[in-house]
Each structure stands twice: as structure tokens, then as C-alpha cells.
């Protein structure tokens, strides 16, 4: 087979591989506006956890009793975490029924403080340098955000970055915050 024919064959096979990959791509990777693109609020998945929060997180949650809480596991060295943090803080300020607690996972206190100072943000921060809280709450991916009901029981989880400004996300959170916690 000539060099030219082999090159053409490689291009055709590569193109076919791209088409196959696009056909099986998850909705998050689909082209915006396509019929396979889902609402960002659909990324909330049910999440139950029987374990009590570790002491440091319990202390941060105590003043928020009676409110739904977003617990965002993040790190200053995690780019998707850095991108979504201003939107999370904005949501915390705009939605009185929902509070935000951030858990700085495997991060240095100086880096966390510098990030928030540079972005003029002031969320509640719980340090988790040894990943005690992350492990106890089965968080292995950053960012991960847990939505706790008013009794501070985890109900929903989002793994990965989310557009917290999106109308469907805000509506979903408002509806969740309006519900009364289920009794265990």
C-alpha cells in the first residue's frame, strides 16, 4: 500500500473514531443546544449518609440549624473549584434559605486565605488538611458539593463544577430549601 493511501486510511479511521466517540458522549460533553444537553439542575444526585459530620464541620453547621446548607469540598489548587467559588458565595448571599460552608481539602491555610482575599469573598471555611471530613463523607472528587436539609442530613450531591448562577439550579435549591426535613 502506498504512503499516500495509508495516510488517507488513517484520516478516515480517525474521523470515524471521532464520530463514534461523539455519538456516545455523555450529555455534559454534548454541544450546547443539542437535544442531549440536560439542565444543570439534573446533575444533583440523591446522596444519603448515616455518619455524623466530623467535629470541625459540626461546629460550622451548628449556627446554621434550621437552614438548608451547601457544603462545598474544594481546594485553592483545584481550577474548577476556583472557577465556581465566586458563584457559590454569590448564591449564599442571594438566597436566605440556603447557607454555604466550604471545606478546604488538602490545602494550606495561607493559600485558602489568599484566594478569598484576592476575590473579596468571605464564606465559612472549615480546614480539612488531612482529608478527615472528605473521607468521612465519601468525597473523592473536587469540587463536590453536598446539599444538606434543614436538619443537616445530606440529601443531594453534585460532583464536579456546576453553574450555580443557572436559573434551573437556583429554582431547584429554593424548592429544596422550602421543604421540611424528613424525620429519620
From TrEMBL:
The keyword Signal applies. It comes from Aromatoleum diolicum. SUPFAM superfamilies: Thioredoxin-like (SSF52833). The keyword NADP does not apply. Residues 1-30 form the signal peptide. Keywords: Redox-active center, Signal. Residues 15-178 form the Thioredoxin domain. PROSITE patterns: THIOREDOXIN_1, THIOREDOXIN_2. PANTHER family: THIOL:DISULFIDE INTERCHANGE PROTEIN DSBE, THIOREDOXIN-LIKE PROTEIN HI_1115. This is Redoxin domain-containing protein. InterPro entries: AhpC/TSA, Thioredoxin-like_sf, Thioredoxin_CS, Thioredoxin_domain, Thioredoxin_ResA/DsbE_sf.
Amino acid at each position: 500500500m502506498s504512503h499516500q493511501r495509508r495516510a488517507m486510511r488513517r484520516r478516515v479511521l480517525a474521523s470515524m473514531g471521532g464520530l463514534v466517540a461523539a455519538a456516545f458522549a455523555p450529555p455534559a460533553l454534548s454541544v450546547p443546544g443539542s437535544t442531549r444537553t440536560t439542565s444543570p439542575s439534573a446533575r444533583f444526585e440523591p446522596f444519603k449518609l448515616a455518619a455524623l459530620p466530623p467535629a470541625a464541620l459540626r461546629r460550622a453547621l451548628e449556627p446554621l440549624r434550621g437552614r438548608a446548607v451547601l457544603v462545598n469540598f474544594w481546594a485553592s489548587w483545584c481550577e474548577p473549584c476556583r472557577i465556581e467559588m465566586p458563584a457559590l458565595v454569590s448564591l449564599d448571599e442571594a438566597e436566605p434559605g440556603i447557607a454555604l460552608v466550604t471545606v478546604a481539602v488538602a490545602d494550606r491555610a495561607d493559600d485558602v486565605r489568599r484566594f478569598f482575599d484576592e476575590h473579596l469573598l468571605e464564606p465559612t471555611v472549615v480546614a480539612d488538611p488531612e482529608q478527615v471530613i472528605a473521607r468521612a463523607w465519601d468525597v473523592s472528587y473536587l469540587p463536590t458539593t453536598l446539599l444538606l436539609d434543614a436538619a443537616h442530613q445530606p440529601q443531594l450531591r453534585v460532583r464536579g463544577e456546576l453553574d450555580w448562577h443557572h436559573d434551573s439550579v437556583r429554582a431547584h435549591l429554593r424548592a429544596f430549601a422550602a421543604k421540611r426535613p424528613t424525620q429519620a
